Queue: 2 jobs
Job 1
Amino acid sequence: MAKKFRIEIAADECKGCYRCLAVCPKKLIARGKELNIQGYFAVTVAEPGNCIGCGSCFYQCPEPGAITIYEEE
Amino acid sequence: MSEKVKFGRSKVFFDTFHRRPGPIKKNMHYCPGCGHGILHKLVAEAIEHFGIQENTTPIAPVGCAVFAYYYFNVGSISVPHGRAPAVGTGAGRANPESYVISYQGDGDLAAIGFNEFLQAANRGEKMTVFFVNNSNYGMTGGQMAPTTLPGQKTTTSPYGRNPETEGYPTPVCEIVNSLTAPVYIERVALTTPGRVAAAKKAVYKGIQNLKERKGFSLIEVVAPCPINLKMSADQVNEFIEKQMLNYFPLGCLRDKTAELPEGKLPPPVIRDEESVREILFPKRNENAVAADFRNTSDIFDQELRVKIGGFGGQGVLSLGVMLANMARLRNFNVSWMPSYGPEQRGGAACCAVTVSRKAIPSPIIDRGGNLLIAMTQAAFDKYIGELREDGILIYDHTAVKLPELPAAMKTYGIDALDIAGNQLGNSKFANSVLIGALAAVLAKNGMNEADQADFSRAFAEAVEEKFGKKPGAVEANINAYNAGIAAMK
């Protein structure tokens, strides 16, 4: 059985640099429409469950905990 | 079904950044899209991976990463501009069990601190340097840096960097690659996922080299600075790929780690208080008085300000040190502050010695002096104005011609150089002659008999401390001291 992954965005930690957008091979990440606590349009994830767990977005993100990728066990 | 974190916040980061001022405690302070954040994550992950969090000492630069200590839960140090490799050298040698990381930007490393950096690299210090190259001075608002590209516009190169007048981008990795000592040099970039993966590998390698104490590792990270370059995430990646990498080609320039054995810890540095004291003051006088001893003469109740001036080589500075040490051996607070020219012999030299039972607010003497010892006319002319009207002046009889002086001033001439050179056979004893003269002068100015005897004992102890290992030197100096007393009587 293929491994399953899930992305979680801590919206208040996003600074809206959008480095993660282009690198997602599944194009799951999009610009959000709501301002977060810092005043940025945080990114959102359309279908978190379709993540393949490549980690590209995590390593593009300059914030330590804005993106977390979970693996189902 | 349960979940585990596949990619998430490293445990080497503080969970909450309490040191960061303001309400935002989970984010770093960096601008959106900054390469520092990405590199911080890679470094934190590598520290976690190799299990060296406990002893890692990252040294943050002055620059955007100045607040790295807000984030890494390790024993960080922040240092002045460009000095990270110098402080890292000290930190690594004083605490050999530590793993020193020098984290620097391009202005910090390639301009301000290039000397410190190159020297550390050339010595092969066991540290890993992360060099963040974003083609400008970021924190101060995007000025031209050594790494700015020809034609690149910055706030200080508004028409673009002109190589005719500003030179070319500094190829730091290539320069370091011309040195013998460094073991690992690689340049990476933070653009595409593939590049970031290569950067992660290089960062891991750098941290592994630290753990195995292989030697000096340099990882140059070509990093995005979208805010100062006024670009979007995509634009800054393109700028790096299409322009910066022409001047800063990626790749591993050197990796000698495989052929090197795992490094050993250097022998521990002695650091207990007693052994440090032993190094600083190898000869301590066992005859010194008890801690509660106090000289009883009234003259010692006030703060005594002594200025000694002459030319370099006359022993002016060592005379001051000797007086200060005598007072220290009698439980006074003392300060000694020299001022002299670059030449070892000749030129004006002076020192200020302050002796007090109370705390000494300043070692500087520019007025209110109690005692002036003037060995030359120039020194007399320069410092006589600092002496109190009722102060004591001791001057070299042949060198100084006295003008009209305030009536309350007490003046004592002595031919100290003549006595030392002609009677005692060596002009270097002149300062001991002068201390003898001072003993006689103080005896005429309120020092009681008990303290007169004690003054001589203190001198003998101070000389013993300084010259105890040189045969004959103690006797010769005490002889000169006695000659000084005799001459002044």
Note: Chain B has a mean pLDDT of 92.
Job 2
Amino acid sequence: MTNVSVAKEDVATSDELVVLRSVNKHFGALHVLQDIDLTIARGEVVVVIGPSGSGKSTLCRTINRLETIDSGTITIDGKPLPHEGRELARLRADVGMVFQSFNLFAHKTVLENVMLGQVKVRKADKKQAGEKARALLDRVGVGTQADKYPAQLSGGQQQRVAIARALAMGPKVMLFDEPTSALDPEMINEVLEVMQQLAREGMTMIVVTHEMGFARSAANRVVFMADGRIVEQATPDQFFSNPRSDRAKDFLSKILHH
Amino acid sequence: MFDFLDGYDVLGAFWTTVQLTLLSAVGSLVWGTLLAAMRVGPVPLMRGFGTAYVNIVRNIPLTVIILFSSLGLYQTLNITLAAKDTDAINFRLAVLGLIVYTSAFVCEAIRSGINTVPVGQAEAARAIGLSFSQVLFLVVLPQAFRAAVGPLTNVLIALTKNTTVAAAIGVAEAALLMKDMVEKEAQLLLISAIIAFGFCCLTLPTGLILGWVGKKVAVKR
């Protein structure tokens, strides 16, 4: 009996990759995250949606501690988030992050952007890092741009490079903080396609987005946030066709009819 | 017309000016960068030190610093910076004084450069697991320096002219030569013009070349 229950626990813990427990955060008087409990399983694709100011970006940024939290715990792969220093840097290397404004290193070429973390954090050999970087750039469809500088690329291309840069670290989980919000409409799909491919390949992903199409087609679960709380969680089908909370109904009625 | 120049080593004096400038420039660039790193760093003690250093040093007249390095360091505390004769000692003390003073301005020029680097650059660098010093030296400072070429050029030109203060402790550079000539010769206007022309020969190309460099290395966003 005991053995069985231990085994069960093992399965349970190894299956939970990112766990947030009663996480709270304030920006001054504003309570941006209120008692957030959220568990993301290995290989799961979770899309976080909600109105502006609902705390979804902040939630995303707390997971690699770009934002600190006031109380609660966040664990990644069973390890609590370290506070500062080397330990935190090591954890961040395992958590890929894609930003709304791309944030490619402006003084480095596309190839150097994808190599930097491999060489300086993973201590990879330069030649191998270069080969891996080129392979990743090919995979996201910008292999021919490797020697250009970020400012010479379109927004969609830059964001795909940013995805390659995060993937180069071999992350356990990828965070996407509104990855298509700064893009021209015709460039959104090229980025979403890369993300969809990643999802199919089994990458664990937490995606903050306004792209409902992506949520429908790629997500295992939709998390709806409003006013710093998780109001509702459901499969995309359930959520979009039959939202339970009034807040979600109101939100969907505003975005889905035009 | 220029006969009175016989017996004076004008080029030699300007060569000393150039040496003072270059050595102080390198020294204050290194120390100023470290000060800037302290001022933007996470350690409160270092931040406090950097802030205090800059605010104290840049408010003391350079003449006082240079005189202190000779009267205080050498004649009172007998610090000679490993030099043997008085000329060499004074030269090195002058370089030290110029570094101490100029680095405060270099620090602020670099900090203004750091302010032009978007926060997202540092966030992205942290997100791939770089340590604080890696973020600073691999991502933020390389971009900050490119933006700071203009302000740093101003500091370098000011430094070139500030080396004349070293005359106060007897370093044989251009201003000391001028003082010497003015005492012994009659062509006061001409002497001043020659020295002024010499400084323009040093500083004008500095401004033009670094202005071009600044445009060349500017980070496109």
Note: The radius of gyration of chain B is 20 Å.
